[in-house]
């Protein structure tokens, strides 16, 4: 499987993940236990329909890889992850065992949702998202070059491993590419 297909699969997974989070968001906000938003009054327009519409707009744009879709996906994951964390914390004082379990599950969901931010923010995914096709053709590398990622920002770089030194910096973030030096000239 080539890199472009792997990125397409990751993108599809992220779209499904955000969509499922939106469904859970709607279920949590419409529960009488926590927020008590009825689906028939003015509060539902403010607290349910408007955020859900914005989320659907964001998912649609992210799915179609529009320029605004990337930013909307980051915003959605941050907003929904924060919402799940706050909702989980608010469920604890209600005292019921079921509420405490639901609170723990929402906090766990918040962590997994916010963890997806790292995936979307990775330089590799961002580069793929904004390009129509993502080709990493090993034939375009010079002799002795290999593809490596920056340990700080995860940028994909073509490097010659034997020439890397602790003084080499990433062209994107400016941090060191090599954390420490290993002496390869030791005789046994």
Report the span from N to C terminus.
Answer: 41 Å
Largest sheet: 2 strands, antiparallel
User: Which percent range describes the beta-strand content?
Assistant: under 5%
* SSE ordering: HHHHHEE
The domain count comes to 2
The order of strands across the largest sheet is: 1-2
Quickly give the structural class: mainly alpha
Write the layout of secondary structure elements.
Layout: H1 3-29, H2 42-63, H3 67-91, H4 97-121, H5 123-130, E1 146-149, E2 156-159
Antiparallel strand pairs: 1-2
Helix pairs in contact: 1-2, 1-3, 2-3, 3-4
Short note summarizing the structure:
With 188 residues, this protein is mainly alpha-helical. It contains five helices and two strands. The protein has helices spanning 3-29, 42-63, 67-91, 97-121, 123-130, and strands at residues 146-149, 156-159.
């Amino acid at each position: 499987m080539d890199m472009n297909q792997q990125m397409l699969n990751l993108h599809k997974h992220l779209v499904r993940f955000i969509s499922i989070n939106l469904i859970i968001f709607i279920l949590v906000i419409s529960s009488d236990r926590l927020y008590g938003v009825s689906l028939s009054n003015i509060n539902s327009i403010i607290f349910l329909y408007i955020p859900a519409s914005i989320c659907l707009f964001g998912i649609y744009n992210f799915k179609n890889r529009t320029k605004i879709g990337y930013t909307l996906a980051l915003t959605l994951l941050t907003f929904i992850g924060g919402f799940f964390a706050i909702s989980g914390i608010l469920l604890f004082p209600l005292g019921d065992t079921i509420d405490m379990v639901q609170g723990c599950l929402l906090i766990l969901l918040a962590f997994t949702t916010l963890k997806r931010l790292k995936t979307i923010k990775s330089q590799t995914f961002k580069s793929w998202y904004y390009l129509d096709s993502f080709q990493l053709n090993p034939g375009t590398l010079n002799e002795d070059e290999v593809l490596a990622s920056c340990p700080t920002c995860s940028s994909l770089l073509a490097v010659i491993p034997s020439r890397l030194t602790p003084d080499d910096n990433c062209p994107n973030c400016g941090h060191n590419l090599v954390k420490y030096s290993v002496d390869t000239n030791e005789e046994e």
